[in-house]
Amino acid sequence: MRFDHLSIPVTNWIASRDWYVNVLGLTVEFQIPERHTVALQDGNDFTFFLSEADNTVRSHGIAFTFQVDEVHAACAAIAARGGRFSHPPQKVFWGYGAEIADPDGYLVRLWDEISMKEKG
User: Fold this and answer.
1) What is the Cα–Cα distance from 39 to 2, expressed in whole angstroms?
2) Which tens digits make up the pLDDT trace of 69-98?
């Protein structure tokens, strides 16, 4: 068994798509505009579906964790593209990394293997 994709509800599929593409650097795999849905991919071909729901979307503490090559460099690149971090790379309860929220409040966590071993 292999985890293949994840679908999450968003309040505005276009705004969310643009944030994940322009801020995090994910790529659009395909879109279904009539269903207000976009499929995004990370660097390892994991598919992440964003589907517009009504305006009652709540993040409910859901967090998405992305492993990056180097967390400080990834955060600098994301900040240069307009990303605003809840906190920069630092020691946290889950190890060592950074956290940013998407337009719907879903938490996006970034970490790298070396920093996690050395500082986590």
Assistant:
1) 18
2) 999 999 999 999 999 999 999 999 999 999
Any idea where the domains of the chain sit in the sequence? 5-119
Rounded to whole angstroms, the maximal C-alpha distance in the chain is 47
Query: Model's pTM, two decimal places?
Result: 0.89
H-type helices in the chain, by residue range?
13-19, 71-80, 113-119
Q: Would you state the structure tokens that stand for residue 12, as one six-digit string? A: 């505005």
Query: Domain 5-119 is of which CATH architecture?
Result: Roll (3.10)
**Which value, in Å, is the radius of gyration of the alpha carbons in the chain?**
14
Name which of 71, 23, 26, 75 is nearest 48 in CA terms: 26
CB 27 within 8 A of CB 34: no
